[in-house]
Amino acid sequence: MLDNTLNTLLIVDDAVENLTVLDALLRPHYQIRVATSGEKALRIAVSEPRPDLILMDVMMPGMDGYQVFDYLRADPATRDIPVIFVTAMDSPEAELRGLDAGAVDYITKPLVPSIVLARVRTQLELKQARDWLSNKNAFLEAEVARRMLENEITQEVSIRALAHLAETRDPETGNHILRTQGYVRELALRLRDHPRFSDTLNERYIDLLHRSAPLHDIGKVGIPDVILLKPGPLTPEEWQVMKTHAKLGAEAIEQAERDAARPVEFLRLAKEIAHWHHERWDGSGYPDGLVGEAIPISARLMAVADVFDALISPRVYKPEMSLDLARDMIMQERGQHFDPDVADAFLSGFDAFIDIAGRYRDAA
Q: What are the structural domains, with CATH classification, of the chain?
């Protein structure tokens, strides 16, 4: 039920006698504010207490009712206030013009008190319903946003947990997943305006890429410790087993995709990265020997990120390499191991990659 005591009406009319009549009729039921000109009405409409409904004369000197209405609709602070035109112009054309302009109702003079009260009450009830729906929608939108953020946080934590699970099998990698995640995002940002990449590297793709990158080596959980942790060069047979981690990771993620009730976009990228980040631009990589553009963009970016971090990080089978020497190695492999444009993006932004490496440096 409508609580009239909470509703404020603004009556706009240049004739004092008309204001007096409407004020006497409506004040017992509502809070009333009055304006004798269009200019004053606009000032009152944006001041407290804001009107819930405006009853406005059409024919006024200076700014007429239609002009006032246009100004009200142009201002975000007043555009949702319903307006009833109250006028002596009783022709169908005049009424149609008022309703076409956007007024919620059109009352002609001489006024019939019961009709005025009924129409005012109806419009206030409609406004209350619209406001309730608007508030409800705002609440629902906020709730949806909150739950989406909660889901994204849960998803990110789960991804990190899986990635760290892989790291527990290979403890010397330390902050490798954080560094490679940072490198991949930096590469994507540097390439997003490049003609070869702009159609793919939009904001959504880069976010998904950043989120899925930590799973690139998840397949290592399937490699025996005797091979994964061997403190020296692998035999040809052991190397063949080691290379299966790419396919193992992709298969694990694919199984997760099948278990999901609906497609999960970031899993598609995670699977691409896990499966093909060891492919080489010249086709000499593994597991499928893909060549050039056949290698997904996500995997091409991770290839540079993963190799750079491997070069500058100590491993059980090698010492770390200097940053300058690692940069030179990436340069030498441009067009062979790496997509030339991806390598160029890395080389041109080398200082940014040094910063990421330093930010997530492993503890001594």
A: 4-140 (3.40.50.2300), 169-359 (1.10.3210.10)
